[in-house]
Amino acid sequence: MPREVITIQVGQCGNQVGCRFWDLILREHAHVSKAAVFDASLSSFFRNVDTRHSDPVDLPVGDGRSQLRTLKARSILIDMEERVIDSLLTGPLAELFDARQRITDCSGSGNNWAHGHCLYGPMYREAIEEKVRHAAEQCDSLQCFLLLHSLGGGTGSGLGTFILETLEDSFPDVFRFVSCVCPSKDDDVITSPYNTTLALRSLINAAHCVLPVSNDALVGICNQISVRDTNREVQATLTDLPQDSKYEALYRPAGLGPPRMPGG
Questions:
Q1: 132 by DSSP, 3-state: which?
Q2: I want to staple 13 with a disulfide (CB 3.0 to 4.6 A). Which of 20, 100, 150, 233 is the partner?
Q3: Span 4-29, pLDDT tens digits
Q4: Residue 215: which of 225, 203, 230, 200 has the closest Cα?
Q5: Residues 6+ apart with CB under 8 A from 202
């Protein structure tokens, strides 16, 4: 049975990393599966949509040999500035995203955790819950949410952690995975240490698994290989998330519910 993953990309960093993430998934699947069919592994991250109808119809996995029509990522794009998401929706992967599954503003969060968490969070909570609910209704067996964001900026740290807490309230039985980029020690954003510190509490209490990525480590890697290859290496582990065998070590004994991070 397919086990779907809904990806939520938040902020400039989250959406830029997300774009490379989707590119990597498509390339790896094309390398492994030479047949253009909609199988179970592809359905974990994508919907197969027949756009010939006025109201596009989702095509089921079936026996894993269904013909590919139009792939749509199980993704929600969120940013309080329009520039990055607009570039995604006009770029090479534009047809992969559902433009209706986006939330943007025009003023940004000003690199301020409180602005993203306490202002934009409550302001857009209803819209966010509706987008997530819509994505979840299109899944047969939702396995987890994957949140992509940074900890240094205002939208990624503030609104990102607000969304994480909202997911805990609305979908307590669904795993919440987070891949976050930690700021460099010499980050030019003066508020990034405060944003990171304020965001950590939500990561500890509301996430089942956190996959942190150090900006300093990325810089070191970039000194040895190209930026293109670096982005692929950073996201490589994320493509393994829907594999059930990867989860066996995370489960507690039956009856104790999903696992939690220390301090959760």
A1: helix
A2: 150
A3: 999 999 999 999 999 989 998 888 88
A4: 230
A5: 161, 162, 164, 165
